[in-house]
């Protein structure tokens, strides 16, 4: 068969009607075409039914070859002009949706950019009030331990060790609850964790007021601790709505609600216990959790959590409602999870569905992050090379800070009682007519206000790490003289200063932990750290109540001093300073 040369402009292999495909030879340099090139996209027609020799097996003069087939080259996709400002972009056809081109040409912004652009307004104020009510509820449940133990010991004639157990089981429940609610909030959403922990706390709190005996009271207070253990979710939830540059200040303002709860509980005990009994105090302490439930429908889900879960439309809707409430606008462009996704073209090419029209403002999430689920996966991430040092140091500092803070709360009611008991050689119960315990507790609760003001001044100026270790050393200095017996006025003054410093360092620590961890393990990481801190709460009654009740004041205070000094040194070795840094 003779080789037929075709012009080089032919874009496809050409079949001559009724014959096998003819080879196309690329000539260099190409000769001048024998006939003019047809304009595109006119059909290409090659017909040689009469000039070509017959096919093998076909006689001369037989039926001619079938008519030639026509081929039309597909037209190129049309080019569209850029949209005017504020005009919606219709969806691109599938053949022209190139994620590399889109990612390069489109503007992008992160959640931090959106929050910074809208500022702190009405939407964040709603989140602040609701999270603050959660902290009021936890503070009241913790402060209740200062009053409950002595009155139960007097009514049921239990030992100091049994009295300390009543406080320890609450912190043991908080340990379990911190881990459980942290996992729930990372797996099913921040709002889900908030709702069920609040319902659980209120229900168990009311039931504990009806306890018929000591063992039943211990069991129900343990379950109350499980519910209260979810309070750290309020912190993570609130901080995920706050712009990075003001996060420290707003964390201090949130901590004011804790102080409000301690003052409210001391005032409530001062009024209720002399007139009624401890059962009424338990029931009224559970009331704030009940009051939170009707307003749960007003709370938004965290946009950071929604973005991590690849719920892109929901994250955008939350940010748009927040911007509308704050009377501001979102930045132009496409919402992305972090800045790395803006230039990760290889990842974008395999996940083009994450880049949809601008008005949908959907997020891009890394597959390796979104695929991580479950408590074991989160724990592996917390113990990875990048987070291992921060995680281990946070666990110890949370333990020490909880041990010191809750110990000081218990020391307020135990020191004066222990001094009188050890001086007379008789350990006796607390009488309802003795109002010194209410006065001392109320005064030391007020100490948290200057502690918060001090942390507010230091946290964004001095840094997170330096603020923590400096206030821990100051707390050691205030507790030092209490190794020996002091008069009542000096004891109250020293406890006032120690509690102010303990509250200040605890506030900065609760701010630092969520800032260290990325969003996809933030609540779990903070929850486990808080749970380790609850171990300190479990142990501190054995020191602050049992040792003091056995007239071992020096040994008890030395333990507090050593733990605080070690925690202050540990703060110096934190690998990351998060002041002014955006949350990942």
From TrEMBL:
<feature type="region of interest" description="Disordered">
    <location>
        <begin position="23"/>
        <end position="98"/>
    </location>
</feature>
<feature type="transmembrane region" description="Helical">
    <location>
        <begin position="251"/>
        <end position="272"/>
    </location>
</feature>
<dbReference type="GO" id="GO:0022857">
    <property type="term" value="F:transmembrane transporter activity"/>
</dbReference>
<dbReference type="InterPro" id="IPR005829">
    <property type="entry name" value="Sugar_transporter_CS"/>
</dbReference>
<feature type="domain" description="Major facilitator superfamily (MFS) profile">
    <location>
        <begin position="127"/>
        <end position="579"/>
    </location>
</feature>
<keyword id="KW-0472">Membrane</keyword>
<feature type="transmembrane region" description="Helical">
    <location>
        <begin position="218"/>
        <end position="239"/>
    </location>
</feature>
<feature type="transmembrane region" description="Helical">
    <location>
        <begin position="193"/>
        <end position="212"/>
    </location>
</feature>
<feature type="transmembrane region" description="Helical">
    <location>
        <begin position="556"/>
        <end position="576"/>
    </location>
</feature>
<feature type="transmembrane region" description="Helical">
    <location>
        <begin position="127"/>
        <end position="152"/>
    </location>
</feature>
<feature type="transmembrane region" description="Helical">
    <location>
        <begin position="392"/>
        <end position="411"/>
    </location>
</feature>
<feature type="transmembrane region" description="Helical">
    <location>
        <begin position="278"/>
        <end position="296"/>
    </location>
</feature>
<keyword id="KW-0812">Transmembrane</keyword>
<feature type="transmembrane region" description="Helical">
    <location>
        <begin position="496"/>
        <end position="514"/>
    </location>
</feature>
<dbReference type="GO" id="GO:0016020">
    <property type="term" value="C:membrane"/>
</dbReference>
<dbReference type="InterPro" id="IPR020846">
    <property type="entry name" value="MFS_dom"/>
</dbReference>
<dbReference type="InterPro" id="IPR005828">
    <property type="entry name" value="MFS_sugar_transport-like"/>
</dbReference>
<protein>
    <recommendedName>
        <fullName>Major facilitator superfamily (MFS) profile domain-containing protein</fullName>
    </recommendedName>
</protein>
<feature type="compositionally biased region" description="Pro residues">
    <location>
        <begin position="28"/>
        <end position="42"/>
    </location>
</feature>
<keyword id="KW-0813">Transport</keyword>
<feature type="compositionally biased region" description="Pro residues">
    <location>
        <begin position="74"/>
        <end position="84"/>
    </location>
</feature>
<dbReference type="Pfam" id="PF00083">
    <property type="entry name" value="Sugar_tr"/>
</dbReference>
<keyword id="KW-1133">Transmembrane helix</keyword>
<feature type="transmembrane region" description="Helical">
    <location>
        <begin position="526"/>
        <end position="549"/>
    </location>
</feature>
<feature type="transmembrane region" description="Helical">
    <location>
        <begin position="164"/>
        <end position="184"/>
    </location>
</feature>
<dbReference type="InterPro" id="IPR036259">
    <property type="entry name" value="MFS_trans_sf"/>
</dbReference>
